[in-house]
């Protein structure tokens, strides 16, 4: 139904349609605002864990769930999940991620080990092997690290320190030397004597690193 007022034609139907269009946009705008304000805008920070791939998306709304997976080197103690409620993430299942155990690293013969990083034999811990006195490290590496798949390498080896005897003169006899001039094991005692009963030893014997350095002379007894 249309009416003429002040020389202009006005249509009531047109006004009604326009009002419905405006109302529609207002309602749509309100729904959009409510959707945005009801979303959980940030991801909870869970120690040693990340959001499982199948639950990753751009926007989260009320009722959405987040499930977490432990990082490599960590094991899950219960399922970890959060739920979006009233713009906040709340704990749904209170699991946790703990460092993986590596077990005992293994003892070394003629040596010992000590923890140099960490407080237990778990993921990330590092130990160092030390040889006892008279022994030396025969392996290239003296450390082990607890990794996701276990200890990083085999247990190292400590071997006995051996000394090399310098050549002596013909008038000096050395007793206690291994056969075939093999290296002298740590702790061995050598006896030096003069070949002639008419002479006596004069001088000293030094052990420099792993070499017997001899400063001996057989002097004639007067």
TrEMBL record:
Sushi domain segment(s): 38-99, 100-160
Keyword presence, Signal: yes
Signal peptide coordinates: 1-35
Entries under Pfam families matching the protein: Sushi
Domain of life: Eukaryota
Recorded coiled-coil stretches: none
InterPro entries recorded: ComplSys_Reg/VirEntry_Med, Sushi/SCR/CCP_sf, Sushi_SCR_CCP_dom
UniProt protein name: Sushi domain-containing protein
Source organism per UniProt: Lepisosteus oculatus
Lineage: Eukaryota, Metazoa, Chordata, Craniata, Vertebrata
